[in-house]
């Protein structure tokens, strides 16, 4: 009973982290160096990338970008800023959190996925393996040791 419960918990934790976030907008145009962070790291953004609530768009100094929401609302992004994509359109009253980052230099690490659903983050695999490992260790530990410490 204990083993099946732990296995179910490990599966639920790992499977739940694999669910992709629902896109609320797309990055319609970019000019200059624009990066997007969809949970793990900033990567070079391409026009058309789907954006979910909480994704962050970094527009480097001298660059520009436009986030287009499903209702047609366009949110222009200016250079030297990081904007967090809200859960709903800014034309519908949602507020986009924007921070000015000033003169900043960044390098996109790796190619990343332009759709935001190219795979799970490495940390997801580590957490999943850790949970499964703990479950196996607990399941194989006997509650009645054959050689007790005190006799």
Please count the helical segments.
Answer: 2
Strand order of the largest sheet: 3-2-5-8-9
Count of beta strands: 9
Outline type: globular
Tags for this model:
151 residues; 28% strand; five-stranded antiparallel beta sheet; four-stranded antiparallel beta sheet; 2 domains; single chain; 23% helix; alpha+beta
Task: Give an overview of the whole structure.
The chain folds into two domains: 1-18 and 120-142; 21-110, no CATH class. It has two helices and nine strands; from the N terminus they run αβββββββββα. It has helices at 2-17, 122-140, and strands at 23-31, 34-37, 42-44, 50-52, 56-59, 64-69, 74-78, 81-84, 97-100. β2 (34-37) and β3 form a beta hairpin. α1 (2-17) packs antiparallel against α2 (122-140). The model is unreliable at 5-19 and 104-127 (pLDDT under 50).
Q: What topology does this entry show?
A:
Blueprint: H1 2-17, E1 23-31, E2 34-37, E3 42-44, E4 50-52, E5 56-59, E6 64-69, E7 74-78, E8 81-84, E9 97-100, H2 122-140
Helix pairs in contact: 1-2
At a glance:
With 151 residues, the chain is α+β, with helices and mostly antiparallel strands.
């Amino acid at each position: 009973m204990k083993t099946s419960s732990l296995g179910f918990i490990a599966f639920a934790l790992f499977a739940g982290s694999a669910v992709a976030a629902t896109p609320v907008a797309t990055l319609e145009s970019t000019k200059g160096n624009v990066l997007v962070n969809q949970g793990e790291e900033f990567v070079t953004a391409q026009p058309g990338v789907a954006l979910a609530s909480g994704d962050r768009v970094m527009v480097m100094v001298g660059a520009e970008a436009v986030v287009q929401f499903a209702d047609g609302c366009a949110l222009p992004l200016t250079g030297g800023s990081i904007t967090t994509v809200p859960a709903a359109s800014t034309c519908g009253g949602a507020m986009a959190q924007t921070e000015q980052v000033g003169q900043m230099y960044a390098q996109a690490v790796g190619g990343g996925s332009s759709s935001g659903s190219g795979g799970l983050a490495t940390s997801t695999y580590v957490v999943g393996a850790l949970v499964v490992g703990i479950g196996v260790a607990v399941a194989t530990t006997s509650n009645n040791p054959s050689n007790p410490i005190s006799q």
